Amino acid sequence: MKKNVVLMMLSLSITATSIAQDQPQASKTEQTFNISAGYFKRDFSFDLGNGNRMQIQLSDIADLDKIINMDSLLHDFFVAIATLEDTLSDELTSKRIDYLADSAGRKKIRVQVYPQKSLSYFLQQGNLAALKLEQDTINIIGLVSYTAKYTLRKAFAATRYYQVSFFINQVSDLKKIPANTLNNKISAIQDKKDGKWTKTKDGRWHINSMGQDIYSKEQGGYIGSRGDYLEMRISVNAQNYKNYFVPSFSLGAAVILSNGFFKRDIGLFWEP
Fold first, then answer.
1. Mapping DSSP to helix (H, G, I), strand (E, B) and coil, where does residue 103 land?
2. What is the sign of the dihedral through the CA atoms of 164, 165, 171 and 174?
3. What confidence score (pLDDT) does residue 131 get?
4. Nearest to 186 by CA among 74, 67, 76
5. Hey, what's the torsion of the CAs at 193, 198, 201, 205, to 10 degrees?
6. Of 12-26, 45-59, 206-220, 244-258, which range is least confident?
7. pLDDT on residue 221
8. Dist. CA 164–CA 197, nearest whole Å
9. Considering only CA atoms, which of 81, 103, 98 is closest in space to residue 30?
10. N or C: which end of the chain has fewer CB within 10 A?
11. Would you state the pLDDT for residue 64?
12. Do residues 166 and 54 lie in contact, with contact meaning Cβ atoms separated by under 8 Å?
C-alpha cells in the first residue's frame, strides 16, 4: 500500500508541474504595473462623494508616511500626464492610468483606454446627451527601499510597494477635490489605525467617532493574517494501519509568525 501512496504523490506532483508550465508568463508590462494578489496586508477605503472612491493598500502600515501629503502626489501625477491630454480628452471612454514612481524619482506611466461597448443617453426636456456609465481608474504605485530584518535571518536589502487607487467618474474630478481633504483623511487613518472599529449594517468596518466615509472590509483594515498571532486547533484523523481503520483526534495550539517574506508555524499538539 505504501508503494501505491508514493506513486500517487508522484503522479500529483507531475500533474501540478505540467499545469504550472502551461500557464502563460506575465508580460513585462504586467510585471511592472500589476502587483500580485495577496501582496498587501492593509486596505482602507474613503468615500469621496458622487460615487467616487479612494483606496489605499499597504504592505507595511509605516508607508502611510509616504502618502500623507496626497495633494503633492496628485500634483506630480497631473504634471506627468499633462502631455497625454489628447489621449484622455474623450470623456465617454473609460480609462485606467497606472503611475509608478520609484525611490530614485523615476516615473513610469501606462494608459489603457476602453471604448463603450454600447451607447447610453440621457434625455431631459427634449435634449439628448451621451452618457458615460463606467468609471475611470487611477493607480498611483510607490516603491520603498528598506533593510529587512527578521528573526533567524540575516538582514538584506528589499523593496516593498504601496498603492493608492481612485475610482472616479472622470479623471478631472480629482482636480475638484478641495485642498487638504485627502491629506486629512489619511492623517485620520494614521492617528486612529489602532483604535476601536465598529462593524455596521452595511458589513463594513468603520473607525469609531469618525463617520462612515472611511471604512474597511475587515477590522483595522487588515487583509487575511494580522501578522503574529496564537491559534487553537483541533483535528480528526483517520489512517489505515495493517488493514485496520484507526481513527484519532488531536488538540493543540500554534504560534504563527508572519511577515511579507516568511511564515513560521510553531505548534504543540496532544494526540491520544
1. coil
2. negative
3. 62
4. 67
5. 20
6. 12-26
7. 85
8. 22
9. 98
10. C
11. 93
12. yes
pLDDT grade for 109, boundaries at 50, 70 and 90: very high
Q: What percent of the chain has pLDDT over 70?
A: 79
Query: What string of DSSP letters covers 244-256?
Result: EEEEEEEEEEEEE
The answer to whether 66 and 58 have CB atoms below 8 angstroms apart is no
Q: What's the rounded mean pLDDT across residues 105-127?
A: 78
Query: What do you get for the CA distance between the two ends of the chain, in Å?
Result: 25
Look up cell 446627451; give the residue.
Answer: 129
Instruction: Please state the pTM of the whole predicted model.
Output: 0.71
Cα distance between residue 75 and residue 98, in whole Å = 15
Give, for 100, the enclosing helix (H) or strand (E).
Answer: strand 94-101
Bridge-based pairing state of the strands 136-148 and 94-101: parallel
Q: Which of 11-25, 129-143, 148-162 has the lowest mean pLDDT?
A: 11-25
Distance of alpha carbon 164 from alpha carbon 99, whole angstroms: 10
Cβ–Cβ under 8 Å, residues 99 and 107: yes
- Measuring CA to CA, which residue among 147, 148, 145 is closest to residue 160? 145
Amino acid at 25: Q
Using CA atoms, how far apart are residues 165 and 114, in angstroms rounded to an integer?
18
Are 230 and 204 in contact by the 8 Å Cβ rule? The answer is no
Please tell me the predicted confidence (pLDDT) of residue 11: 39
Report pLDDT for 24. Answer: 59
- 199 within 8 A of 220, measured Cβ to Cβ: no
Cα Dmax for the chain: 85
